[in-house]
Amino acid sequence: MLGGWLNQIVQGVLLGGLYATFAMGLSLSVGIMRFVNIAHGDLIVLVSFLILTLTTTLGLSPLLAVLVTLPITFLGGYLLQRLLLQRVLGKGVLPIILVTFGLSIIIQNGLLGTFGADTRKVAGGSFETATLVLGGGINVGLLPLAIFLSAIAMVIVLDFVLYRTRLGARIRAVSDDVAAADLVGLPSARIYATAMGIVGVTIAISAGFMSIWTNFDPTSGPSRLLVAFEAVVLGGLGSLWGTLVGGIIIGVAQAIGAQVDAAWQLLAGHLVFLAIFMLRPEGLFPKY
Known about the structure:
globular, mainly alpha, 75% helix
């Protein structure tokens, strides 16, 4: 009995790693660049279909397919910011929400027209089902463990880039005060675009993990956005480590809810988010 509960908590922690990868790019958008990208979940699904296409048509391994998508998503994020999002940035909250909502609708309908409504999944081979038996009724899948460790690595790398490099200092300077940054000669539009390119890279990594671990279809984006948004808000704006903790909290809550009743899995995560949000609306580890 106790082993079953412990196993569920461990699985919830590992699931939180996947949620944290969903939320990492959104944490940069909301906490650092100060705007909510409603299309974030749909972009993850879009890249998942790109990875699926590379693995099925070109026969690439999932890892190689993700590596191929990294420069594509960086360039896509850069161009998305320079050509579309930059036009409405700084003009209030509503324009950026409407533009990204429209982008979300376009992506969903484009994927439905191209791939149909069937659910898809990328085959991960034997690694997908390999398991470590820890004893006491606790089993750890190698794929979830790799995803969780990758989520920690993403936080370390992004934290280093943002707070230990010249590029990170420029991104934070533009985020704090665009007008002041322009006055001292910082190219704010190009810096925002570079930051969005980094967000694109995090989207490619999370899409690679999601496409192997779970099924997805053209309408999966909003559910990914919701769990990512909850993880970011729970962790606190601007805190990447907080985002990881937020993802783990939601993952553990869902795992415990599923242990009680399978129908409670998703609801348990939302209820825990609501309870913590009511107690600490600023999040657990806010930086802004």
